Amino acid sequence: MSDDWKQTACILCECNCGVEVQIGGDNGRHIVRTRGDEAHPASRGYLCQKASRLDHYQNGPDRITQPLRRRDDGSFEPIDWDTAVREVAARFAALRERHSGASIFYYGGGGQGNHLPGAYAAATRRALGSRYRSNALAQEKTGEFWVNGRLFGNGVRADFEHCEVAVFLGKNPWQSHGIPRARITLREIARDPARTLIVIDPVRTETAELADIHLQPRPGTDAWLLHAMLGVLWQEGLTDADWIAAHTTGVDALAQRLSAIPVATACAACGIAEEQVRLATRRIAAAASVACFEDLGVQMNRHSTLVSYLEKLLWLLTGNFAKRGAQYIPAAIQSLFGSGASSQRSPVAGAPIISGLVPCNVIAEEILSDHPDRYRGMLIESANPAHSLAESARFREALRALDTVVVIDVAMTETARLAHYVLPAATQYEKWEATFFNFEFPRNYFHLRRPLFAAPPGALPEAEIHARLVEALDALPHEVVKDLRAAAARGRESYREAFFETLQREPGLAGIAPVLLYRTLGPALPDDAAAAAVLWAPAQMFALREPQALARAGFAGSDAGDRLFDAMLAGRSGVVFAEDDFDACWKRLATNDGRIHLELPELFADWDSLAHLPPAPDPRFPFVLSAGERRDYTANTIYRDPDWRRKGREGALRVNPRDAQSLGAEDGCVLKLITRAGEALVRIECSERMQPGHVALPNGLGLDNQCADGSVRRTGVAPNELTLARDRDAFAGTPLHKFVPARLERVR
Ligand SMILES: Nc1nc2c(c(=O)[nH]1)N[C@H]1C(S)=C(S)[C@@H](COP(=O)(O)OP(=O)(O)OC[C@H]3O[C@@H](n4cnc5c(=O)[nH]c(N)nc54)[C@H](O)[C@@H]3O)O[C@H]1N2
Ligand SMILES: Nc1nc2c(c(=O)[nH]1)N[C@H]1C(S)=C(S)[C@@H](COP(=O)(O)OP(=O)(O)OC[C@H]3O[C@@H](n4cnc5c(=O)[nH]c(N)nc54)[C@H](O)[C@@H]3O)O[C@H]1N2
Ligand code: SF4
Ligand SMILES: [Mo]
To answer: Which ligand has the minimum distance to the alpha carbon of residue 388?
Structure first.
């Protein structure tokens, strides 16, 4: 074992905490010790228990280290990279010639820890003429993105470190994190008598146990709860009228609606005592600052886009934007959510494309059709949609119907098994890697990580894979590459001039710029950092867009973009790239008049529908199943080794003990869980956390590991064998994974 500690990051959730590791073990290829990196700007030494298991990712089962091609009988044969690249490019090019590039769909581009693949894939997509794409954000966040786009023209985050009141809506940060140093921050809020933690969750989660106020709606009734809270706010005169007048438009269009909300009826609809709802609302209104976080509990549930809107109104009507402890708009090196606009529709289902993403729940429908514009090929990268998308059976059928499926992954996943070609990527610890999950304020940071290990021969970083594909598609002109390489050899200033001059002369090359940077600037970078070259462009753009924030962070002058890029390359624990003041939030507001637009008429019909009580459950499916909840040992499908879990290797269905009793079942016994999509045998865990009638399965289980004899072994229940693609939000198309009607039966 080497005594050096090397800096990297945890890749299991969007926090990407800074980690220091020691490497050793067999061939020196294991992560043997981990500790929090004190120098990381956001995590400051913090880690949760999951990070200590990272070697289960680096040396996980099902790893692939050779390109694979599927034979007619479904088995795979290894092929060399030249063959793989040539055949993949030829098959996609043939689809493009026959049906247009729009028939080639792109899915993925990065998980919780790796966003450079998606940046490079933009070049391949351009070379293919591909138009449609999606990723996991289109099954969680697109409804919220749309709302944010309309209200602010940008994305917002919240400052939990300094807020007086924290509100978590359908979010369990004790387990799922999503804010830096989550457990420390939660404990601090809970301990401080001057601060209040409000948790809105039907389940008594670990976070709810710490809460000062736990509002426990019946599953799927948050819209009514927020409706009631807005009614209280308005009718008790608790809004911040001066702030609203100074900064917003559209409140007049809401006044009538807010004054007419029947608070008592709405409270009854969600099953919470009216007094408690009033108490929580008054606490929010009285606070100097309120920070809110809505997540999957509402985003994968009924009325999800409406709930996103009502949640924003709660803190906007109380003036909780652009001040310490409230909501803000962070500086972005590269925006993950775009403007939230939805100008396009998907070609077959006509579903709204929000932030450029086709709703995950319509992808199968877009394929399993005789529509002339259906998708016919798919490039899938760093994602496992055959496991993570609703209605796995239908998604598998869709993959089988495609002419060409190519998967780029580190492992033989449930999705890769259905591909025509599987291209093996270097792991996130074998290449330069980074994410764009940088949302801090007032000091935002970017963390570029160095490789800890050499990649095995046969596995390539995505930068190289995409460069080869773009070259095979004849989209990278040799002359241009030669000239830009020469410019790079002369120095950064020459390169900058030559690069922009080239794009001016040949604007068509902008689309393949990532690969152009990789092939020309890349080789000139120190420490074999070629795969980081794609970051040069956003660093330049950031310098143009946000010179003040960048200068306050220490990068001023005409070469500030280059100096930022060099600092990213040199930094081991992350680099602060923006120092903001609250004024920046107003400047980043991208509405046409610089005001927040409170009125979203597109959602009024859904809002009006709350006049009706929530529908009674179908008697055949009396339970509500939360299909996929975050627990102490879940991490999407990043860890494929079931033994990474220190407990609960197979996961369990959490059931209220009284429900178990009425089924004649005990803790630990196996029941049959039936939904309209399918059924599964599940081990139950009796838990007082659950309300009667509500059951929950963990997320990310039910993976199929390959055994030596070629067979596969599944551990736990795959939640999407139980979900239906048509169960989705009417507005954004996001799934209702937290509201799956279900039944439990005893097994004989
Ligand atoms: N340990 C762990 N952490 C993770 C991940 C992981 O796999 N494991 N995944 C990461 C990812 S990709 C994401 S997107 C985040 C998600 O993070 P979270 O959204 O916090 O995760 P979930 O546990 O899926 O859902 C949150 C809560 O919604 C509640 N809920 C269910 N039904 C309802 C309802 O009707 N109303 C309300 N108000 N709440 C409801 C559940 O009880 C649960 O506590 O977590 C990230 N962090
Ligand atoms: N029923 C139900 N379904 C859900 C959810 C739920 O709560 N309930 N949650 C949803 C949410 S919020 C999310 S975010 C999605 C997550 O689902 P997906 O977006 O499909 O992604 P992950 O499970 O994170 O899988 C990441 C993939 O990347 C691969 N990988 C890891 N490192 C690399 C690398 O360096 N390069 C490449 N090329 N590949 C790599 C891993 O092997 C794995 O196959 O699941 C969604 N699905
Ligand atoms: S909070 Fe935990 S899982 Fe998330 S990045 Fe940090 S250590 Fe990893
Ligand atoms: Mo997610």
So the answer is: 2
Q: Quick check: CB of 177 below 6 Å from ligand 3?
A: yes
Predicted pLDDT at 547: 97
The alpha-carbon radius of gyration of the chain (Å, integer) is 25
Ligand 3 neighbour 638 (Cβ under 6 A): no
Is the Cβ atom of 15 under 6 angstroms away from ligand 3? yes
pLDDT in tens, 8-48: 999 999 999 999 999 999 899 999 999 999 999 999 999 99
Cβ atoms of 685 and 631 within 8 Å: the answer is: no
- Nearest Cα neighbor of 604 from 351, 273, 256 is 256
177 Cα–ligand 1 center, Å: 9
Q: How far, in Å, is the centroid of ligand 4 from the Cα of 650?
A: 21
Q: How far apart are CA 565 and CA 334, in angstroms?
A: 13
Closest atom, ligand 2, to C-alpha of 381 = 38
Q: How is residue 525 annotated by DSSP?
A: S
**Separation of 626 CA from ligand 1 center, angstroms?**
10
C-alpha 158 – ligand 3 centre gap (Å):
19
Residue 278 dihedral angles phi and psi, to the nearest 5°: -65, -40
More confident residue, 290 or 592: 290
Q: Spell out the residues 6+ positions from residue 519 whose beta carbon is closer than 8 angstroms to its own.
A: 467, 476, 481, 485
Hey, what amino acid is at 643?
Answer: D
Q: Which atom of ligand 1 is nearest to the CA of 175?
A: 1
User: In the block, which residue shows the tokens 């991490």?
Assistant: 635
Long-range contacts of 342-350 (CB under 8 A, 24+ apart): 342/146, 342/149, 346/132, 347/102, 347/132, 347/371, 347/373, 347/374, 348/373, 348/374, 348/375
Q: Kindly list the protein residues whose Cβ atom lies closer than 6 A to any atom of ligand 2.
A: 111-112, 114, 117, 136, 139-140, 296, 381-385, 388, 408-411, 413, 425, 427-428, 462, 627-628, 636-638, 699, 719-720, 723, 737
Q: How far is CA 391 from CA 219, 286, 387, 712, 723, in A?
A: 21, 45, 9, 21, 5
Q: What is the pTM of this model?
A: 0.98
Contacts of 689 (CB under 8 A, 6+ apart): 203, 204, 205, 654
CA nearest to 411, candidates 423, 401, 399: 423
pLDDT in tens, 664-693: 999 999 999 999 999 999 999 999 999 999
Averaged confidence pLDDT in the chain: 97
Name the closest ligand to CA 630: 1
CA of 737 from ligand 2 middle (Å) equals 15
Helices (H), 546-582: 547-552, 560-570
Q: Is the CB of 9 under 6 A from ligand 3?
A: no
Q: State pLDDT tens for residues 533-549.
A: 999 999 999 999 999 99
Cα–Cα–Cα angle for 492, 496, 499, nearest 5°? 130
Ligand nearest to the CA of 638: 2
Q: In whole angstroms, what is the distance from residue 51 CA to residue 65 CA?
A: 24
Calpha distance 399→413 (Å, rounded): 14
Q: Which domains does the chain have, with CATH numbers?
A: 6-58 (2.20.25.90), 68-131+376-435+443-474+508-514+525-579 (3.40.50.740), 142-332+595-607 (3.40.228.10), 616-746 (2.40.40.20)
Kindly indicate the confidence band of residue 2, based on its pLDDT and cuts at 50, 70 and 90.
low
pLDDT given for residue 339 in this prediction:
78
- Distance (Å, whole) CA 626 – CA 694: 8
Helix (H, G, I), strand (E, B) or coil at 670: strand
Q: Whose CA is nearest to atom 12 of ligand 2?
A: 140
Residue of 306, 176, 245 lying closest to 601 (CA atoms)? 306
Give yes or no for a contact between 70 and 345, defined as CB atoms under 8 angstroms apart: no
